[in-house]
Specification:
heterodimer, A: 743 residues, alpha+beta, Phosphoribosyl-aminoimidazole Synthetase, Chain A, domain 2, 7-stranded mixed beta sheet, 27 helices, 37% helix, B: 234 residues, alpha/beta, Rossmann fold, two-stranded antiparallel ribbon, 21% helix
């Protein structure tokens, strides 16, 4: 009886225990069982999701490293490569928001520099409950403080992301941290243990009892009981991370590194078995040599500790002493703890005796693969059937716009990003608050454009279309800055996969994401899956967050979001259809979260992106902004606020689109649209370029003055119009989040 | 002209200072915190960051770094030393400048462009500015709330040792324009001789227009001109 309880308490099923017995040909001991339980958790093994994830496109000429390593790598030209990945730290942040978010940032930073790259930017996609809730406000404050406290101290600018609010994230907030680094192609390092007889070193911080079973904790529902398990949350030390970062990059520069991997989830267990498995080798580790911060730790605790700021290193043979000297210079430890073996086994020694011996591949790659049952939830058809034709027309369009611009999910996130150092590194060309951030690569004219996107209302109502929209919006955001979208990382946040309805959402989202990534030529280079984001009853909305990376050949060519100059021509790109289903307008003004998600024309999205970066490269654009939540009206307001300039639009210039009722026209969330402004002398060249790429383009107004005015022709009820001062828009936009945080 | 940038464990604006120095056409190299010589440099920069993690009190440990002895001798010899952000905090802890830093009154880290009025052009770092000129420099700190006893504050004000003050767009040092609660809106101060400057704003982040501003260039150009002109105080 007691034995049965052991594997069950570690989160393993009876079938999984049997499989371990078969793989070992005997009963596992306690240490071995602990190692299997963390490696076979969903967090480390993707056992429930792996079969579905195989459908994602992962290759392309730009991809230097796809999924399966610590981070993905793309070629950005001139021998330069960009490394990037996004990862969740949801459950720890729900329990201990400051440390949970801080260590989420720390973990993803290590994933970048472990590849040999210098981290140059972070982004964070945060999802919280409604700010009317005290719990949501507490978590929000703590999470932002944690990201700020860690990222600022390490000295990596936090340049973007998103912050969204909905009651489904009340118990279980989402913290998805993305980090981006850069390096030269020849410096790429991988997490493989090669060369039988080579040393294995633990470098960085000491090992303590913090974070034991963090990966298992992250793979179960967030019940009240789980929330009490604070010992599963790690404690971050950004100072040590900064030292480790500099030390590791110095080791790479000196040529001391053969293989290296961060110790994150499942600590020494995960790093040792994954490095051995990738190298087709084994590893023998003497646990007595692992530097500790606590006495009396058992082998089980040493192997499962998730103490932060540690790395497992296979040094270039003969360079062990040099490694030690570099680490000592940076005030850190470096100890040879074992060596690479030919037997494919992870063998652990303590006090001269063998305490565990497990095939590395069994731990790293032979977790069961489950094909979970999936069924379409009842709500999907019901909510999609909502007929927007019955939504009464809006009499006060300006008032509706002010309400939208002041709703926390759309409103300014200045309260968040002023707490982040978004400039350290001398590379931030476009910082937070824009469509995408643009970072100059050190020593180069080139830049990367970075964005994270997801509309979880879309994903709830139609996960397949919603996930495809997330990819398309991310690409559009990157293209609006003048960059070519290159590749994607992703963080799939869902509820409990054992529920067929949740699994259906996941499967659909991956299918939609695959289609969109193929159509837009942006393969997936990695990411993570975070399941069981629920309190046991209510799941979060499906939230497949897309992190997009694009490249701009010369950062001087980047395009800002805000209006730039009086007299510039406002051009509406793309076709606006009667699509207020699932919209922010319907939710905020009419209190309805239903209807059909806007259709998606991926070819039109690709053409729009091409138009945007081509026009930027010819210096035709004064400003560009994508249209998404809140449609044209919100996009106009955001451009006006960002540029502190008004504009006047006449909608009867917009051809076929003008047949829509004013509220439809202003708030529709049709895809493949953007709002650009161009200097009068560039008008003809730009419109010809748009026509050549088959992108509808309507010059329908001028930038100028201090008010935002939208006038409709007689046919569309000429009296209805928007006429709001930019100051009033700005006030509503800037004050929403700080006011909500006062409770 | 060669800047020497002191790197403490946890410094993170060291490379940014080098990038900025190069952007204005000068050389810059690093000095490790255990070095005992600062020879060969025309100006020392203590950069921003979180020296030793700043877990105890900002810069409380960095002041004990071996390099601080030669830095103090360098300063005493009248040669130019600038501490930016965490570097300013190091100068305070080391006693090279008077006063102390408290947490921002908001208790939050704050990173944003900030208007600053140039109060004194007699330092080597501010010669090329106009007295009263309003410039914009980025700030990024959690502990920038400058504090000192009333008597010393008055002496400093009378002696023209307040070099930069937070202000609004018209140049008025209003409470609303003060981002951290510092006394008299102080953003930067110098020693009696004027060759040691401490400031919270980051001039190195405003040395290229592409990064959002170039008002910091003038500071680097001022000290370069001063050094090249023989480096006489006054």
């Amino acid at each position: 009886m007691a034995d049965e309880l052991i594997w069950q308490t570690m989160g393993l099923s009876d079938e999984e225990y049997e499989r371990i017995r078969v793989l070992l040909g005997r009963d596992p001991n306690y240490v071995e069982l602990g190692m299997f339980s963390v490696m076979w958790s969903e967090h480390c093994s993707y056992k429930n999701t792996r079969a579905v994830l195989r459908g994602l496109p992962t290759s392309g000429p730009q991809v230097l490293q796809g999924p399966g390593e610590n981070a993905g790598i793309v070629d950005v030209g001139d021998g330069l490569a960009v490394v990037f990945k996004i990862e969740s730290h949801n459950h720890p942040s729900a329990v201990e928001p400051y440390e949970g978010a801080a260590t989420g940032v720390g973990g993803i930073i290590r994933d970048i520099f472990t590849m040999g790259a210098r981290p140059i930017a972070s982004l964070d996609s945060l999802w919280l409950g409604d700010l009317s809730s005290a719990r949501a406000r507490r978590l929000f404050s703590g999470i932002v403080a944690g990201i700020s406290g860690y990222g600022n101290a390490v000295g990596i600018p936090t340049v973007g992301g998103q912050t969204m609010f909905h009651r489904s994230y009340e118990i279980n907030p989402l913290v998805n941290a993305m980090c981006v680094g850069f390096m030269r192609h020849e410096d790429i390092k991988r997490g493989a243990a090669t060369g039988v007889g080579n040393s294995v070193m633990v470098i960085g911080s000491t090992t303590g009892r913090d974070g034991i079973h963090g990966a298992t904790f992250a793979s179960a529902d967030l019940t009240d009981e789980a929330i009490e398990r604070k010992s599963a949350v790690q404690v971050g030390d950004p100072f040590r991370e900064k030292l480790l970062l500099e030390a590791c990059l110095e080791l790479v520069a000196r040529g001391c590194v053969l293989g290296i991997q961060d110790m994150g989830a499942a600590g020494l267990t995960c790093s040792s078995c994954e490095m051995a498995s990738r190298g087709g080798t084994g590893m023998i580790i003497d646990l007595d040599r692992v530097p500790r911060r606590e006495t009396g730790m058992t082998p089980y605790e040493v192997m499962l500790s998730e103490s932060q700021e540690r790395m497992l290193l296979v040094p270039t043979p003969g360079r062990e002493e040099e490694v030690r000297e570099v680490l000592v210079k940076w005030g850190l430890e470096a100890v040879v703890v074992g060596e690479v073996t030919a037997d494919g086994m992870i063998t652990l020694i303590e006090g001269g005796a063998r305490v565990a011996q497990v095939p590395a591949r069994a731990l790293a790659d032979e977790a069961p693969v489950y094909h979970r049952e999936s069924s379409k939830p009842e709500y999907v058809e019901r909510l999609a059937a909502f007929d927007t034709a019955g939504v009464p027309p809006c009499a006060d369009l300006g008032g509706a716009l002010l309400r939208l611009i002041g709703s926390p999910s759309i409103a300014s996130k200045r309260w968040v990003w002023e707490q982040y150092d978004h400039q350290v590194g001398a590379g931030t060309v476009i910082g937070p608050g824009a469509d995408a951030a643009v970072i100059r690569l050190p020593g180069s004219k080139r830049g990367v454009a970075l964005s994270t996107d997801c509309n979880s209302r879309y994903c709830y109502l139609d996960p397949r279309l919603g996930a495809a929209h997330a990819v398309a919006e991310a690409a559009r955001n990157v293209a609006c800055t003048g960059a070519r979208p290159l590749a994607v990382t992703n963080c799939q946040n869902f509820g409990n996969p054992y529920k067929p309805e949740v699994f259906w959402q996941f499967r659909e989202a991956i299918a939609g994401m695959s289609v969109a990534c193929r159509a837009l030529g942006t393969p997936v280079t990695g990411g993570n899956v975070s399941l069981c984001n629920e309190d046991g009853e209510t799941a979060i909305r499906p939230t497949p967050v897309i992190g997009m990376v694009g490249v701009i050949d010369d950062v001087e060519l980047r395009v800002p979001m805000g209006f730039q100059a009086e007299g510039d021509i406002v051009v509406l790109l793309g076709a606006t259809r009667d699509e207020i289903g699932a919209s922010e307008y319907l939710a905020t003004v009419h209190g309805v979260e239903a209807g059909r998600v806007p259709a998606l024309d991926l070819e039109a999205e690709a053409r729009l992106c091409e138009l945007l970066w081509t026009a930027a490269s010819r210096r035709l654009l004064s400003s560009a902004h994508d249209m998404s939540e809140g449609g044209l009206a919100v996009a106009l307001a955001e451009c006006a606020i960002a540029g502190a300039l008004g504009a006047t639009l006449r909608v009867d210039c917009v051809g076929g689109d003008a047949g829509l009722a004013p509220d439809r026209f202003l708030f529709s969330e049709s895809g493949a649209r953007a709002l650009v402004t161009i200097g009068p002398s560039q008008r003809d060249e730009f419109l010809a370029l748009a026509a050549g790429l088959n992108v509808p383009a309507a010059a329908c107004g001028r930038v100028g003055g201090s008010r935002l005015c939208v006038e409709f022709g007689e046919g569309a009820g000429g009296a209805r119009r928007i006429d709001v001062s930019v100051a009033a828009l700005s006030k509503a936009y800037e004050e929403a989040v700080p006011c909500a945080m006062q409770g | 002209m060669k800047f020497g940038i002191v790197v403490f464990p946890g410094s993170n604006c060291d490379k940014d200072v080098q990038t900025a120095a190069r952007a204005v056409g000068h050389d810059a190299d690093f000095i490790w915190h255990t070095d005992t010589s600062v020879d060969g440099f025309d100006c020392l920069v203590l950069p921003g960051g979180f020296s030793y993690g700043d877990y105890l009190r900002t810069a409380a440990i960095a002041r004990f770094s071996p390099v601080m002895e030669p830095v103090a001798r360098y300063a005493a010899s009248g040669r130019p030393v600038i501490g930016i952000c965490n570097g300013f905090q190091v100068l305070l802890e080391a006693g090279l400048l008077p006063g102390a830093m408290l947490r921002n009154t908001s208790c939050k880290f704050v990173c944003k462009p900030q208007r600053i009025r140039v109060e004194s052009t007699r330092t080597p770092f501010t010669r090329k500015f106009r007295q009263g000129q309003v410039i914009t420099l980025p700030i990024a700190h959690g502990d920038g709330n400058y504090y000192i006893d009333g008597e010393t504050l008055e002496q400093m004000e009378r002696g023209g040792r307040v070099v930069f003050r937070y202000c609004d767009e018209s140049g008025e040092p209003t409470p609303e324009s003060n981002p951290n609660g510092s006394l008299n809106n102080i953003a930067g101060i110098c020693n009696n001789a004027g060759n040691v400057l401490g400031m919270m704003p980051h001039p190195e982040r405003a040395a290229e227009g592409i990064l959002g501003g170039a008002d910091g260039r003038l500071l680097l150009e001022s000290v370069a001109q001063w050094v090249q002109g023989g480096g006489k105080i006054g």
